[in-house]
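Predict structure. Chain length: 121.
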Amino acid sequence: MLRVLMILVPLALSIYAFIDCITTQEKDVRHIPKPLWAILILLFPLVGSISWLIVGRDRASASGRIGGAPGRRSGSGWVAPDDNPEFLKSLGDEQKKDRDSGESGDTDRDRDEDKTDDPKD
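Prediction complete.
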């Protein structure tokens, strides 16, 4: 079992670091260009992966990504719908529009009352 772990852990670390390197934006890469980091990770899996994770990427700017720490960078990143003022405003506009259009036609309550007054029952 220990032999398997000695192979799988560095392999998983290398795969993670390589995918992380490939998906990182160019502006977040530090010290050397992104293609050189990818080559280092592939040629020297253990050392390259660990060095990428420690010094290769600017982790502070990564917080603006989806899933990053909320509130660190204002004006960027994903915002939950219940915290997004634009989304909440659109819901209010949609409800107002539904209310205005519902006054001129049948409402759900009127349709339900029509069903109960049906003489066929």
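Summary: Residues 2-23 form the longest helix (22 residues).
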